[in-house]
Amino acid sequence: MNEKLEKLNRELAKGEARLRRAQHEEKILEHQIKQLTRKERTHRLCTRGAMLESFLIRPEVLTDEDVMDILKQAFSQAGMKEVVSESVKRRVAGEPLTE
């Protein structure tokens, strides 16, 4: 009976060690996902910021507030919200935005 108890305790310890390793691996993978998501977002922000700057005249002299005002004006134009909304709907549906 004592041997069975020792064997069960060893199996329990091995199982607990496997669980700890699996939990550690899970944390590593979650961290990698966050890192990749952050890198994708950073890349997207840089790319889209460059796109915006390509439409601005002398962007280096404009402040962040200036650019925000320009964007507010551009996106408050009649029909712009509908254009953006329609673009998002088409993209989500897997359709091309341009034909």
How much of the residues is beta strand, in percent? under 5%
Helix count, DSSP H or I runs of 4 or more residues: 3
Biggest sheet overview: none
Shape: elongated
Radius of gyration: 27 Å
Q: What string, H for helix and E for strand, traces the elements in order?
A: HHH
Mean pLDDT, rounded to whole units?
Answer: 92
Class based on secondary structure composition and strand pairing: mainly alpha
First-last Cα distance = 77 Å
Instruction: State the low-pLDDT regions, or none.
Output: none
Total strands: the figure is 0
Helix proportion range = over 70%
Would you kindly provide a written description of the structure presented here, covering whatever features stand out?
The protein is an all-alpha fold. Helices cover 80% and strands 0% of the residues. The chain is built from 3 helices and no strands. The mean pLDDT is 92.
Features:
0% strand; elongated; 80% helix; 99 residues; mainly alpha
